[in-house]
Input
Amino acid sequence: MYFLFIKSESKTPGGLPARPVLTSYYKSSHFKNRPFDPYTNYTSPNETILCPDSYQSMYSQLLCGLCQRTQVLRVGAVFASGFIRAIRFLEKHWQLLCRDIRSGTLDPTVITDPAVREAVLTKVLHRPDPELADFVESECRKDSWQGIITRLWPNTKYVDVIVTGTMSQYIPTLDFYSNGLPLVCTMYASSECYFGVNLNPLCKPSEVAYTLIPTMAYFEFLPVHRNNNNGELVDLADVKLGHEYELVVTTYAGLYRYRVGDVLRVAGFKNRAPQFNFICRKNVVLSIDSDKTDEVELQGAVKNAVDAHLVAFGGSVAEYTSYADTKTTIPGHYVLYWELSVKGTTAIPPSVYEDCCLTVEESLNSVYRQGRVSDKSIGPLEIKIVEQGTFDKLMDYAISLGASINQYKTPRCVKFEPIVELLNSRVEGSYFSPKCPKWVPGHKQWSNNVKN
Output
């Protein structure tokens, strides 16, 4: 039971289609007419995967997975965030799913895509199954959803998801839902190029190392521990154990010395082939799904919101930081903590802060906005106004942990739980974006990297 989805695509100024590599693959004859292989024998018919409506696609794929529960040996999605989103979808809609399983039909108000209806009814949902519906209902009604994966799909051996990089934040949630099943990361790839594989897939997530396959592209590496303005690059055969590098590729498709933006650390060697830990995306401070927001972009978005809405009230942002909240909401959402400096005498209405949220969102990149509008993989942005002196408290806390007062800089993104708790304890008001930002398919919509 592997959840696969297509994303909206666009065209370049020259008329060529621009889309993520996975969408391109799913729509190709290579996927649609693939020969039988146990590894790609999915519970989801192709029609449910190719449905452009993410709600109908998720609903129908879950329904098919439940109907074939005893045959499922592997569960997963490309990213950990996508799989957790599917489980939370089940948590919200299990009653509708049970009703369709019990009746052996599909609610016409839920599944309107004729291709999806025909595929599910002819290939999976052949007849009413009240016994299965009762079982699913009894499990989903329980107070705790701990181990829900192994309870509903008892023969599952592992969870196949990417949990390296920013996706590591989802590991505790996956362990909770799966009763500690192995979390397997198999490959490392992007829309530009396939890079390598994990030769030890059952290792712990913290130990995942990818062996780069030298025939996939010409790989070079930019050391990240020193100034590289001179463009000095290191070949695949010359990287050193324990050193960190930014990946640079020259591909068969025509990319020349393309900086992928991934920072890798050499973890070891397979024979003479280096193996790499994925460390992070370079300069990325926020990420929920496949979105990547860097510090410069975030700074610009905050400035746009302040200039457009707070200046008129004599307000400005004295300090700010951010947090990718994947615990309190599914899908996760961006949280901005603002400490204000207000010189005006007029109180700032809540609607102004909501407008700030929307302006920040509309200032972020198209991949973020696509996640908000089309894919529904990112929740509304939230701004939390904190008490005066909060960021002084934050600095005091950092210094108490050993930071230098001379070198301290306010972090533009926080992940350490005690810091998040400190910030939340001083929140005076919380405001969400009132609607989705503008996003038009096909308008400057370039393919997004599928990063591990």
